[in-house]
Specification:
Helix content is 30%, strand content 32%. It is an alpha+beta fold and 239 residues long.
């Protein structure tokens, strides 16, 4: 693999997308490419990613339950693939989560784009796994709940779904947007001390779809019905 040593390599000035592949098709590909285009514009990169290039790559590397990763910087476009580690068995187990001690910077433009400047997320994800958790959840400088290291977070109370506002400091996820278009979801400010008032919690990202959170910071959520229903709907639509 020939990689040019541009500012993406030296300083993390690049963007990437991680996309689920089902039966040879990239799930919500157009939505991913639109978000990548916004990131390219934000960083003023010169590279362009075409849908045709992605489709051609997937034809050359067929996958039934896989992952496509697109990484772009000023002088590089790298496509890689692997198996998707998530499935029904993982969903049935659910995630244990904990609040991170690292503060999410809601004032930085990098927070709102999927860039390769991703060190906080990688290190905190590793730390979560080392401590026996599946995910760490970031709060911002005001103490407001934001997102996970690789996920958006949702809470449920009285059958109403709540999620942090984008302005709290989070990446607008592809599955988050999918749900927002199909379900009445209240965007609001949520604080860690309020989580015991919710009956259910779940996470979303492009590889796992929806994932129930069984516990967060020691509080166990009694339900997981909303996440189970929407996870089934989502993957059925994507087949």
């Amino acid at each position: 693999m020939d990689i040019k040593l541009d500012e993406g390599y030296w300083f993390g000035l690049g963007v990437f997308e991680t996309i689920a592949v089902v039966n040879g098709r990239a799930v919500l590909l157009e939505e991913h490419l639109k978000r990548m285009e916004k990131g390219i514009h934000f960083l003023k990169l010169k590279m362009y990613v075409s849908k045709e290039k992605i489709v051609e790559y997937l034809m050359e590397h067929p996958m039934s339950h896989g992952v496509l990763k697109i990484s772009v910087s000023d002088e590089n476009m790298i496509l890689t693939h692997r198996q998707n580690p998530y499935g029904d068995e993982r969903f049935q187990k659910g995630f244990r989560a904990k609040f991170s001690q690292v503060i999410r910077n809601e004032t930085s433009g990098f927070t709102y784009h999927k860039t390769t400047n991703y060190g906080d997320c990688i290190l905190e994800k590793r730390k979560a796994l080392e401590e026996g958790y599946d995910e760490f959840i970031f709060c911002n400088s005001k103490g407001e709940v934001c997102e996970g290291t690789s996920s958006n977070i949702f809470f449920v109370k009285d059958k109403v779904i709540y999620t942090p506002r984008v302005s709290c400091g989070l990446l607008p996820g592809i599955i988050r947007d999918y749900l927002m278009r199909r379900e009445k979801i209240v965007e609001t400010v949520i604080y860690p001390h309020e989580i015991s008032g919710y009956e259910e919690c779940f996470l979303t990202n492009s590889l796992m779809g929806l994932m129930s959170v069984t516990s967060l910071d020691g509080y166990t959520f009694p339900q997981r019905t909303i996440a189970a229903r929407w996870n089934q709907i989502f993957w059925r639509e994507m087949e």
